[in-house]
Amino acid sequence: MFPKVMEVASAERPLRIALVYGRIPLPMRRADQMTVAHLLAFLKARGHIVDLFCIKTGAASTAEDEEWLRQTCRTVHFYKHDWRAYLRAPLLALFRALPLQVGYFSHPQQRKEIHNEVKAGKYDIVYTYYLRSAEVVRGVGRSPNSSHDGKTPATFLALQLSQALNARRIAENAPNLWFKWLYQVECRLVARYEATIWQHFTRTFLIGKADVEEIQKNCIRRNKPLINNFVFCAHGTDVNRFAPRNDIPVRLHHLVFSGVMRTPTNVQAVQWFAFNVWPRVRAAVPDATWSIVGREPAPEVKRLAKLVGVEVTGTVNDPSACIAEAEVCINPMQAGGGMQNKLIEYLASAKPTVATSLANEGLGATSGKHLLIADQPDHFANAIVELFKDPARGKKLGAAGREFVLSHWTWEAHFLKLEEAFYDALQKEELPLPEVSSIA
What we know:
About 45% of the residues lie in helices and about 15% in strands. The chain is built from 17 helices and 13 strands. Helix 7 (about 165-170) runs antiparallel to helix 8, helix 8 packs across helix 9 (about 210-220) and helix 11 (about 280-285) packs parallel to helix 15 (about 375-390). The N and C termini lie far apart (about 45 Å).
């Protein structure tokens, strides 16, 4: 599967862009890969010139995947991940206090080539996706406290979410002591890193206020300037693929959770729901069923198939078809942060949805209008049962959710905001160094 064709006109002023990423964007098996691949499609449709610098991590790409990337970009630079990354991560954590994920993805050859290309004056914009690749491009372009000659590229770091907040939430819900300790260590390392790394970029992209507040708190704790170069910019979904499906009948009293089922946050979400909410739903609606949809289910997830009425599908050809079968979709996230692709996909599919406040944190949908928000097990179960018993209300919620996504969460809408931030940064002079202050 390749990204959708973007429905946009050509840009009046094409930009030369270096896009730096810690994975290969295809195949689109993770939310970040989906975002980067769609961004490449957008930039191509707008007529921008893009060089991609990416590490071959994750699922193996096919010849067709790599050909799509070469047709979409001017050049594609692939870097091989090997055993040295496993040594680099703990060594950089120990001697430089870098987060483990940053050390793991800081590929020396990738860094060298990017710096050489920037010095050659090839780019207007250097765009780095995710915190883990920040060290690779540190110091290559304009930042709030650096001088430049006007020819230096503007640099953008797509933090997306605060990884310190994410790691802390995962640690709080960890299934064992080893997992808890590992994420507590990473949380401390990331908190320190996020408080300063933003100063080395022209702009920093974040998804929501909770991410900004977390980074600001860490700046204050370390007596560092408050982050002031952030721009709110998330991503969207394919509203043609995830749409109401009249060709697929809805299964009565059927729930769906969709996601990559080896991801710790998804594992924790379905475990919480299975042990705290599902018994309440079954007690009220004995014929209720629940499908956990997504590839690579962890052993803990597979064991949930032993529960009455629960199905663990593993990999499916088309998750949108499974979502279409649901009478109600759920997102009971207990950890994580930022955008929740699954939540946008549910709403785009016009499905009545019940989610936690945390799941809706980056989306900002209105409870009672676009979906139902519930954080306590009994409230979550009651919301589901109410939707089972009142299909008309569910249909109304689903329709409103679909309209919400069409108005705010298409790929094109968000990437146009991103592009606007590119132009804005190029037009402005050097940003002033912010002062240390406090937040309410």
